Amino acid sequence: MEKEEIISDSKDIYRVANTDVLSHLNLEETGLSNQEIDKRISMFGKNKLKEVKGKPLILVFLANFTSMMALLLWASGIIAIIAEMPQLGIAVWCVNIINGLFSFWQEFQAGKATDALKNMLPSYARVVRNGEEQQILAEDLVPGDIVLVAEGDKISVDARLIEASDLQVDQSTLTGESNPVRKVSDAVLKEGLSPFEISNMIHAGTSVSSGTGKAVVIATAMETEFGKIADLTQNMEEELSPLQKELNVLTKQISLIALGIGVVFFVVSVFFVKDGFAKSFIFALGMIVAFIPEGLLPTVTLSLAMAVQRMSKEHALVKKLSAVETLGCTTVICSDKTGTLTQNEMTVSNLWTVDGEYDVTGLGYAPEGNVEVNGASVNVKGNKDLDTLIRLSALCNNAKILPPSEESDRYTVLGDPTEACLSVVAQKSGYSLEEIFKNEPRLRELPFDSSRKRMTTVHQSFGERLAYVKGAPKEVMELSNKILVGGMVRDITESERQEIMEANDSYARKGLRVLAFAYRNLNEVDNLPKAMSAYTPELIEEDLVFVGLMAMSDPARPEVKDAVELCHKASIRIIMITGDYGLTAESIAKQIGIVHGENPRVITGKELYELSDEQLQEALEEEVIFARVAPEQKYRVVSCLQTMDHIVAVTGDGVNDAPALKKADIGVAMGITGTDVAKEAADVILTDDNFASIVKAVEEGRTVYSNIRKFLTYILNSNMSEAVPSAAFLFSRGGIPLPLTVMQILAIDLGTDMLPALGLGTELPEAGIMNVPPRSRDDSLLNKKTIIKAFLWYGLIASIIAMACYFYINFKNGYSFSNLAADGLVYRQATTMTLAAIVFCQIGAVLNCRTEKQSVFKMGIFSNKKVLIGIVFEIFLMAFMMYVPFMQSIFDTAPLGVTEWIILAIIPIPVFLIEEYRKKIVRNKVQKEEQ
Ligand code: ATP
């Protein structure tokens, strides 16, 4: 078929009866063949939207050179040149250009990171091709494909439904209508409808809120309605993260400090030293430039980007760079149970009917094992109750078990593990799944939903129409009034009800997950609607006949226990919020150490509805588990924790989890079991669904913040030793000739300091970083501690050393305090020595700044290669400035002798050791306080 033919056949396809859709489009029920798929891909291309063009690159580039700070520096450059200091003018411009290039590069990298993320997070689609159900990349869909959609799926094509079961679609991205819209497969004959009003069409860009459906793809990529409104995703403004906001404040703070110092120096220079306006201005300008932290933005981005990279190796994909840092402040993690804290590798271990209890042997999804009583094999098919239980569990089931293949040497699961393990029991009991499905074809499904906690399928079963129900025991029991005993149905007695719930509780206490199974003969129901599409849970799921229970184990993930302990050390609370039964949740919570008390409070979904906000807050102060809650209720817990000033990370996988994921400070979606909607709403996606990965991510978040602070301490530190020589000059009214020239200050700030500082941004987590409580929301990067440490402690030590070196050169050459060299070779050597002394102090300082409390020896002096490369670079740069004549003329430098180099080489040692000693005192103090 040609492209035009395919397109014209599919025009107005919504008017065709659903049973005729396939033949109308010349398609088979078995889906497209490989040959046809290739042909259609070459005709229609990939199902990908054309990249929406962002701001033109040139504008993004220019924006980095026109910020307030940049304009200030451009103007300063011009003034310097007018004042006949061209090298200073050019240097100031260079600062500006380097800074602009860095921030542009950073933006560019961040953009690339999101692109990479898009590739790492492909959307998948379930299709029928070559007669088989397959999972393929959504971008490989072509018109004519038969797609299967279910709750949580993001739809990436326009398609005509041929089957729909309770299907509701969220079209809000396209229509703005926030309520889900019901979709059906019947033909639509009404005229004048907008594309989104056609009830048998589903559209790209929307998502399934509930139910399931089967549809034929009509349009892909730019041909979809979504493609036509392609600029939808354009112009999405990113909200600033707390870190970005803090950085903005910080840059302003430091710019103000710089400006203030500049003004003071200018005034003193003009009125006190009487140096003249032009010279004083240049002098003040140098101070301003010296104090502006040029490398701050690049370092922040670098540390965030490195952390994102490390995190992706640890199975956490971060969607927004800034989310990394927010993770570091997390004070509470609200976690799901199934799959996150547990393995989600279900194995049924017990069957229970009112007549007896049975063990099921064998682990995992391989159909190897038996149903036994006291070690003796049981003939399941010969026991009517067991037979019904097994068939029911296999039929009310959407999972598929895949035998070992090239991709995996084990049996794997397509679909929900809770359902898959039920089919395994059927196989272990000697049933053929194919035969079961053939004997009792499915007519209708009322899909599982975590608020209802049940699922029902309707079957044509040997002349009867039966509804098979499975779900959480309490919920199923509330709807059952009869029981199957020895193949006979009779009213259920109160003591039997009790017996069933006791069995349930005793399994749950062992940490097992329990499902109950029941059925209803619909032939015996009066006034049922004729059309099965009108069946609703309210109509079908009542008057049930209870059949039995199945208990399955879902072991805790082995690494979770340590992760939980780490959280407790880090004063991060963990709150389990699960849809599962209270006793099961409690048992798992105890196993992995989430709760320590003998009787932790378990709040069920029902109780939660009745609690007032104040009562909920009170409950949240103590150890608490939320069980049998609906996902919508997570939102409430999250907001309540937030009003209690907590920074909350929350996990989720379902569509209904999306509001909580969005509300939380950090939404964490599950990569494997998560729906597209949850992934979209989240900030972080766990590719292994594992709780331990969240904890690692928190550690990275904390590291990033501490690295930024280390960097800041390091660069502020040299500012002090740069300012002190100038102050000495000013306050001695020129009696001490300027020990460090403006160009030399710039050489440190923009040359030697840069690389080691960037190295600090890549420092690995410090031991003990998870032994302290999360940083408080009020803590800021430039706090009192950082200022004291940088300016008064490191800064003062370096200033003393630098000035001592300056005087040393003078004294060595016969000058004295009252008569210091003011020009000529000795003066140049003296200033060069001051410059070199500061650079070598910075070598000690960069090593010091690598840790906050811990000894650097413990981290390994050579463990941060980037810092080491930075140190080697700065020594070479220093030598280059000293020995190359061209550089000497720019920086007013002169070569130093061997003795001077020996002194310089020794300088970092006391700088480093004094700080090591201080850290030791701090550590001892902390230890004493802990005892
Ligand atoms: P968590 O919220 O911690 O992941 P969960 O998987 O138990 O735990 P839900 O998926 O909301 O949470 O399930 C709620 C309850 O519904 C389960 O405890 C179980 O009793 C029942 N249930 C789960 N899956 C199915 C299913 N496929 N069919 C029928 N009932 C189910």
Automatic annotation (TrEMBL):
Subcellular location, principal: membrane
Organism the protein comes from: Erysipelothrix inopinata
Signal sequence annotation: none
UniProt-recorded name of the protein: Cation-transporting P-type ATPase
Chain segments annotated as transmembrane: 57-82, 88-105, 254-274, 280-305, 791-809, 829-847, 867-886, 898-915
Subcellular location: Cell membrane
Family: Belongs to the cation transport ATPase (P-type) (TC 3.A.3) family. Type IIA subfamily.
Coiled-coil regions listed in the entry: none
Membrane topology category: Multi-pass membrane protein
